[in-house]
Amino acid sequence: MTTTTLNPPVGRGALPFIDARHPDRPLVVNYYRPARHRPNDPVIVVQHGMLRNGDDYRDFWIEAAEQHNLLIVAPTFPNEEFPKAEGYNNGLVVAEDGTIAAREQWLYAVPARVLEALRAGGVIDQPVIRIFGHSAGGQFVHRMLATQGSEPYAAAMASNPGWYTLPTLERRFPEGLGGLDLDREALVRWLAYPMILFAGDRDIVTDDPNLPSQAEALAQGPHRYGRAHFMLDCARTEAERLGVPCNWRLITVPGIGHDGAAMSRAAAAWWFEGRIPSTEELKPQGTAVA
Question: Taking the alpha carbons of 42, 47, 48, 49 in that order, is the dihedral positive or negative?
Fold first, then answer.
């Protein structure tokens, strides 16, 4: 495959991106590049929510980018080219006829290929790379870790997903990892990775039309906050059954609901300041964004 090159100018912007595995489905890479950022300075990959608003999610991180010298990279999957949950959250893994698509077609490898394009453009070399996803992006991130492994991400947060793929081979994807030709070793690696479940304790609405409500999701709890606890409990139980470590962690963000802006600010503070800010600090704009 021909290597795509990305070399965004300093500042805030967006660049078209054609993924070699999906040449007929153009993406957009929303980015913010501080003037002082160098190839080995930190990188944050940000996965947007159901609104496909990578531009908003990039903007949520700009203040932290300037403060901590972060390159923000927000691969954006337009709904027209990647429709519904099947075309984004679920990674194009399950084809329209219910069969499992060829692994090379799964979307979960796309962010890593965006990073390779930035490396080819000389923008990054070997930086510490973290990935954050909120809502549908949180679904994307944890399924990416489950199916692709953790490379090249030193840290990962799945923030306020609507529901989860459980760490079991006994249930078919996306409820579990069954049918994907993954083995026990892949499951053990996922459990061992220090994935963070990032959960706003006010994300407890049960009548949100965008909250997944199929039977498999409802079995995980009535709302997103409850489902985060269900996921961690399930992981610990499975790890105990297998006799292996579970290094996942659930971090609660007090006073915050389904708010992508506030959760982004909380994630930046957790990673780069070692703290969760107060509710007053997290909601200066007072607007929740999915």
Answer: negative
CATH number of 11-282: 3.40.50.1820
- Cβ atoms < 10 Å from Cβ of 172: 15
State the residue for tokens 């409820």: 175
Sorting pLDDT into bands at 50, 70 and 90, what band is 289? low
| Token code pair at residue 141 | 């991130």
- Its pTM stands at 0.96
Per residue in 55-86, pLDDT tens? 999 999 999 999 999 999 999 999 999 999 99
pLDDT in the model for residue 3: 65
Q: In what order do the strands lie in the sheet with 196-200?
A: 11-17, 27-33, 71-76, 43-47, 129-134, 155-159, 196-200, 249-253
Structural domain spans, the chain: 11-282
The Cα 152–Cα 59 span in angstroms is 23
**Element (H or E) spanning 16, and its range?**
strand 11-17
Write the burial class of residue 284 (CB in 10 Å: 0-12 exposed, 13-18 middle, 19+ buried). exposed
Q: Quickly state the pLDDT bin for 250 (edges 50, 70, 90).
A: very high
User: Identity (one letter) of the amino acid at 183?
Assistant: D
| Residue with the two structure tokens 């799945």 | 158
Which residues are bridge partners to 129 per DSSP? 43
Half-sphere exposure at residue 78, Cβ-oriented, CA atoms within 13 angstroms? 13
Rounded-to-integer distance, Cα 111 and Cα 124, Å? 14
What stretch of H or E contains 58? helix 54-60
Q: What burial letters (b/e) apply to 71-85, b meaning 16+ CB within 10 Å?
A: bbbbbbbeeeebeee
